[in-house]
Amino acid sequence: MKNAYLLSGGTLADGKRADVFIADGVIVEVADVLKHPEVALAKKIDVTGCKVLPGLVDLHTHLREPGREESETVLSASRAAAKGGYTAVSAMANTFPVADTAGVVEQVYRLGQSAGICDVFPIGAVTQGLAGKQLAELGAMAQSSARVRIFSDDGNCVFDPMVMRRALEYVKQFDGVIAQHAQEPTLTQGSQMNEGVVSSKLGLKGWPAVAEEAIIARDVLLADHVKSRLHVCHVTTAGGVEIIRWAKARGINVSAEVTPHHLLLTDEMAQTYNPVFKVNPPLRTQGDVEALREGLADGTIDIVATDHAPHPAEDKECEWQNAAFGMIGLESALSIVQKTMIDSSLMTWETLVERMSIAPARIAGYFDHGRAIAAGVSAHITVIDPSRNWRVDRDLVASRSKNTPFHGMELPGCVVATFFRGIPTVVDSKLVQLSGSGSE
């Protein structure tokens, strides 16, 4: 057997103690006492006190390549993903050129394969150039080697209802899904942060919750009308959660995501005028945060997605009004979810695995990911020490960009190891230098 590893002393998501024997890219045996004759030949990694979980899957990542490599590359983002416990990420389409053709999505897919650190699945644009007018090459991207199944114009809303309807109708033929950035553009022109008490105090133009909720309401009705699949990106408001809850109760085929930063941070952070807290959609109120946590716990919100949005320093270290929207999050996501959902007793580790691995893989059709830790499945594994705290340092992130809103914050849960196809990409919380993983 090749590349044989023994993860010894850990517990699974359900709390049961189990050793995990990995070889030739798959999980060979999982048991309290292993019986396989070649276990003794495996390299032993002591994970006592740690949780051994399926590799995390992110459905919302901005990798910036091609065209904006000063912010991030597929390789650097893959490294950040591995440090955060991710074994699959989904590359958003707002690159330059836009990922609206088979050629561009195939380029991104090949770059991910070349990096060899995690699976990189391109998301195709819904419309040409993200302009919201003409449908992109949806069929060609679906039939390409990248086998695109998720389409999104994120950070632009598909605002024309007829274009949105046609997109939903089109992707039905190959079981695709439209992932919508729910934001009515006429209600948010020039908006800088959440509309409310804080925006009034600061004199920054507000971003009303109804701008998000109006598009969610419209789109769940469209999805119901054409019997297609809708995914709502980065839900941020209590009203949005209620609309999705209503839609699911009616049997509408809608799924939704929340970001780690919207589970923890509020619009109060803007009082520093530090643009690291400027994000699209904006940080909302404490009441919204609590509704998002409740929605994630009860399954109204299906998954956690990072919306990892790297920017160079010059785009964030400036006046608030001139700063770019977005923050990085791949390396801190699991810890934020532990802090907000596990340590608060709102969720169990089993539910976390559902929200951060199983459900995202199911929604996207990443059939080799999101599998329980069991014999015979691909060895995509995340090992986290829940009792070990760590301090976020923007100068130590693997991402090319440093715009983390959590700099200096002490967080629970340290990713100890990550395995991709049975090969360790992180050991002792440090990246492993892999042959064939390319260079920047």
Sequence-ordered SSE layout with sheet pairings:
Elements: E1 5-8, E2 19-23, E3 26-31, E4 43-46, E5 51-54, E6 56-61, H1 74-83, E7 86-91, H2 102-115, E8 119-122, H3 138-143, E9 150-151, H4 161-171, E10 177-180, E11 193-194, H5 197-202, E12 206-207, H6 209-226, E13 230-232, H7 238-249, E14 254-258, H8 260-264, H9 286-298, E15 303-304, H10 313-316, H11 333-342, H12 349-364, E16 381-391, E17 410-420, E18 423-427, E19 430-431
Parallel strand pairs: 1-4, 6-7, 7-8, 9-10, 10-13, 11-12, 13-14, 14-15
Antiparallel strand pairs: 1-2, 2-3, 5-16, 16-17, 17-18, 18-19
Helix pairs in contact: 4-6, 6-7, 7-9
Question: What does this protein structure show overall?
Answer:
This protein has 440 residues and is an alpha/beta fold. The chain folds into two domains: 5-52 and 375-431, Urease, subunit C, domain 1; 55-364, TIM Barrel (Alpha-Beta Barrel), CATH 3.20.20. Helices cover 28% and strands 20% of the residues. The protein is built from twelve helices and 19 strands. The chain has helices at residues 74-83, 102-115, 138-143, 161-171, 197-202, 209-226, 238-249, 260-264, 286-298, 313-316, 333-342, 349-364, and strands spanning 5-8, 19-23, 26-31, 43-46, 51-54, 56-61, 86-91, 119-122, 150-151, 177-180, 193-194, 206-207, 230-232, 254-258, 303-304, 381-391, 410-420, 423-427, 430-431. Strands 5-16-17-18-19 form a five-stranded antiparallel sheet, with helices on one face. Helix 4 crosses helix 6 and helix 7 (238-249) packs parallel to helix 9. The longest helix is centred in the middle third of the chain and has 18 residues, at 209-226.
